[in-house]
Amino acid sequence: MQISTNTQTLVCVLRSGSTVPKQQAMAALRALVVGIAIVAAAAHYWVAGGTATKGPVTYVFGDSMSDVGNNNYFQLSLARSNYPWYGIDYPNGVATGRFTNGRTIGDYMAAKFGIPPPPPFLSLSLADDDFLAGVNFASGGAGILNETGVYFVEYFSFDEQISCFETVKRAMIAKIGKEAAEETVNAAMFQIGLGSNDYINNFLQPFMADGTTYTHDQFIRLLVATLDRQLKRLYGLGARKVAFNGLPPLGCIPSQRVKSATGECIAQVNSYAVQFNAAAKKLLDGMNARLPGAQMALADCYSVVKELIDHPQRNGFTTSDTSCCGVDTKVGGLCLPDSTPCRDRKAYVFWDAYHTSDAANRVIADRLWAGMTTASAPAPAPRSGAPGPAAVPAPSPRRA
Hints:
Elements: E1 2-4, E2 9-11, H1 22-42, E3 45-46, E4 52-53, E5 58-62, H2 105-113, E6 134-136, H3 158-176, H4 178-187, E7 189-193, H5 196-203, H6 210-213, H7 216-236, E8 241-245, H8 254-257, H9 267-290, E9 295-299, H10 301-310, E10 319-323, E11 348-350, H11 358-373
Helix pairs in contact: 2-11, 3-4, 7-9, 10-11
Region (Disordered): 375-400
GO biological process, one term: lipid catabolic process
Protein name: GDSL esterase/lipase
């Protein structure tokens, strides 16, 4: 597939049970974030012309929970959110392509690191320097498996996102030299949030083959084997510090609750998420043991989100069993312009049938950050008001 920009053509080639121990997971994340803090404090990331950019360079890979506008450039994509009521609580009330009413968890985490959220890959020109400070490759509809999300027509699969990062790295080498590019990538934070769509829009869908082809144990083995290959590919491109977001309690999101006769969470789907998280943690631990310099950790999103769902009142919410936006959870589930949002958007954990609200994203980021930085070693201090990325010419869209 080809991606055209104003100044050049880029090519991103598509290449073909038990709970996770929380203390171990948090310890790994603390080591990861402290390591990044030390690097950020000791080094500058040099760009063309001798200008230095302070702060950890971040590369984001993921699905609609992390997408900040890549899918806006796919004219045929059925996974877009660049219309009201999305973005109603974002600065100036703008629908940016984020699948929530305001900021994503990643936006809030970036602010805690004292950096602006990395801009979407498709908003950038590699002839400029903006991509040197970090890039967001996430795309709504993406999964670990390439077949996940095919009915959204246009999107970046995880393999394609990695190929786009490979394109970025080649451009970095051309701009700042191989040694500086390698050092920057080695020190960068790689944030990955994928796997939800492999269940919600693949394994659990009756019209998708994977749900009838594989047992769940077989499906997890397929997911983990694919993720193993993908993470090794990223490692080969220089990734060393990786934070992989564990799956949330998928059986409790509104699109799944509506399938329950009682309206309660679907226990089996939650069990699938727990089993996947355990398998993913085992994979990451194994990579840390085998790959020199690897620091890969699982973020325990499951427990954090489940706490908000089980106890909304004590976490500042009133409603966690349905979405703020009045959507048809059986068909679509997105907050379309003719939908009716709730009056008090801060009172709801979920914004639409699939995605958490701005208010919930803030709390989730706070909890994850607290778990990551509760250690004796110093961690980067939060800095509010980090400036947003500078505007750059928009490229032409491409087709997956």
